[in-house]
Amino acid sequence: MTAQIISGTEIAKQIREELKPEIAALKEKYDLVPGLATVLVSEDPASQVYVGAKEKTALALGIYSERHDLPVDTSEEKLLALLDKLNKATKIHGILVQLPLPKHINMTRVLYAIDPRKDVDGFHPVNVGKLMIGEPDYLPCTPYGIQQLLIRSGTQISGAEVVVVGRSNIVGKPIAHILLQKKEGANATVTVCHTGTRDMTFHTKRADILIVATGKPKAITADMVKEGVVVIDVGVNRIGKTAEGKAILCGDVDLESVKEKAKAITPVPGGVGPMTITMLMINTVKAAKLAAGLA
Predict the structure, then answer these.
(1) Which residue from 29, 70, 165, 255 lies 20 to 30 Å from 235 (Cα-Cα)?
(2) DSSP 3-state of 54
(3) Enclosing domain of residue 67
């Protein structure tokens, strides 16, 4: 068996094409243009590229975009003042602060300072709480993208044994809660593995759907999965450079060996990554509709 490759690039493109007419209709019928503000406090090239990709995608869809690039030595007070301004800005419906932040800035304080109604990343405790009880305004972008990859690839989720490797607040915990809800595109039995798990392979070999977000290159190998598993690889690891200086990337799953046993698998790059940005656009449009009383 050689796995079907679940292309996040293609599925994200499909979703964006579906979103375009909705954005155009909001402008035509209600004179409403969804607005997204991104805030970057970093000189990290990868973060700059990522924020640039978000800005480019927003503009291509007809979403109003503001980009705020701050010096890396920006004080926490100055960042909080900017967020307060954006919270009050009527043109802005969604605010995204690019993580990670410099060490001198308290990430929790910054995330809590974003108006929950504009928290299109879904990290504010109000939105986390709504997710827990099954009534979210916004699903966190990467887990939301993972769910859409599963749905749009035709993967049976209801009743499936889902194993999540990793318990971060960004991926592991939220995707577990999303997939265990008694809803369409969910209703799975979910196990979460982490650094305290005694026998990782015991759990991963039971998985019908395996979602891996460990931050460790090729941590999941073929002997750790069963035949016919669907694998979502969230990891992006730089493991070297080509002769031309281009980064060599791999996921948290050993793609070459695991794809011979899996039914379907996401590649790295081109899997989860493109979905994250697209789901951010979905959330921004929803935020605009909520603000206008249209959702």
Answers:
(1) 70
(2) helix
(3) 30-119
